[in-house]
Amino acid sequence: MKVLKFGGTSVGSAERIQNLRRIIPTTEPIVVVLSAMAGVTNILVESTNLAAKGNTKLAKDKLKEVEQMHMTTCDNLFASSKYKMKGKELIKKIFNELYNKVENADSTAKKEILAVGEILSTNLFHLYLNEQRVDSALLPALSFMRIDKDGEPDHYYIAENLNRLLDSCTGINVIITQGFICRNSRGEVDNLKRGGSDYTAAIIGHTINASEVQIWTDIDGFHNNDPRYVEGTLPIRELSFDEAAELAYFGAKILHPSTIHPCQEKNIPVVLKNTLNPNDVGTTITSQQREGGIKAVAAKDGITAIRIKSLRMLMAHGFLKKVFDIFNEYKTPVDLITTSEVALTLTIDDTSHLEHILKALTSFSTVEVEQGQTIICVVGDFLAQNPGMASRVFNSLRNIPISLISYGGSSHNITLLVQSERKIDALRALQQVVNNPQTVSTVNNGNTSI
Ligand code: ADP
Ligand code: ASP
Ligand code: MG
């Protein structure tokens, strides 16, 4: 069984939803995971922010906008007045409940409001398939998708409930469900964080041992640099799980950062495809590691660097343990680390416990904090047998100040830290090397060992 996830653009209008019906195979069993229509979750976030500030009227206006958008989609999606009516009644019912939630926008109501985008898109698609006489079933994600108290998928609960629901749909090929939304360990409505529909597809793939997870979006696969900032980026046809996970974790928006892990664990290929150009082969991500020089670059903003200097002259035995115990205590993941004789610099992106962390660190070290940093991740074949690869990377960045370098943690990436305002310059400079990914350097004489 395959899992096919369609992102916001792929369900962004009546025409796009009609196009989905042409893309999905209907003669084999599949699970179709849908995002909210493009832009909807952003408007819902705005609405909840307004509600939190007490601007109930403006918050409701935002919801009205979303309601209207779906009403218009209904008019254009369905052929018959019977189905137009069914769609509109459904939308009306959902929004009547939603307007009340704005009034008491506590954190649970907020999550319930954010969930509505996926609930609407999947219901409309399900109705559309009904009208088109394509046999399908809609499984509510809130009946099987659950995270535990650490925000991790509750695999046992998910497997038990999803398999039970799937068993009740025997004989139906097209199973539709919502991406992004889930319940938490208290049973409340929650979500898998922004862009989380990819992760939903991966978790479902993992649970049902899918033969493939397809992520359908608005671009022809994983590009070798961020197309939002760099011109002339090219699609990469094959990537390994490790390479794709690294790029997704370090900012490649095409994939939610947690998508690869569940698929890698079960060795399920992940295929990235373009709904606007379905015949393009896209990108296939598998366990196969292909040689190919410098393959791709990604960037992650919002990084804070913390420089920690031991109060003693040397980094005494136990110093690193003390430092990492603090980050562990505050459940704050550390991304990059470099050390010198007396100091250690590391980066974090979650600053919610920064104040407490700094207080604890200053009891045995001096600490400096630098915000507004960006991690640049360069993925390639950086094996010792490929001398000159790293020098090509650094040569291209010669005009950009780099405040931290992490190299050798794995054989397939170099990670650097730059000021966020230099991010675009760095990405553009690196484009010369990713578009010419030969393994042997042309800028050194062969004696360079990095
Ligand atoms: P969806 O709504 O389908 O989930 P997203 O907007 O989340 O789509 O992801 C697709 C977008 O990711 C592309 O339109 C592109 O602008 C952006 N993107 C950023 N980095 C990359 C990359 N390396 N390769 C392809 N797309 C990328
Ligand atoms: N609709 C959600 C978002 O915009 C989830 C997703 O699109 O993957 O973040
Ligand atoms: Mg996405």
Rounded Rg: 24 Å
The biggest beta sheet, please? 8 strands, mixed
- Give the distinct bound molecules: adenosine-5'-diphosphate, aspartic acid, magnesium ion
In the predicted model, the low-confidence regions spanning at least 5 consecutive residues are 439-450
Q: At the first level of CATH, what is the class of the largest domain?
A: Alpha Beta
**Helix/strand/pairing class, anyone?**
alpha/beta
**Neighbour order of strands in the largest sheet:** 3-4-2-1-7-9-10-8
Shape descriptor reads globular
- Tally of separate helices: 14
Please give the CATH architecture of the largest domain: 3-Layer(aba) Sandwich
Structure, explained:
With 450 residues, the protein is an alpha/beta fold. It folds into two domains: 2-217, Carbamate kinase (3-Layer(aba) Sandwich); 295-449, VC0802-like. It is built from 14 helices and 16 strands. The strands form three sheets. The chain has an eight-stranded mixed sheet with strand order 3-4-2-1-7-9-10-8, sandwiched between helices. Strands 12-13-11-14-16-15 form a six-stranded antiparallel sheet. The protein is globular, with a radius of gyration of 24 Å. The chain starts with a strand and ends in a 16-residue tail after the last helix. Residues 439-450 have low confidence and may be disordered. Adenosine-5'-diphosphate binds at residues 7-9, 35, 195, 217-219, 222-223, 226-228, 252-254.
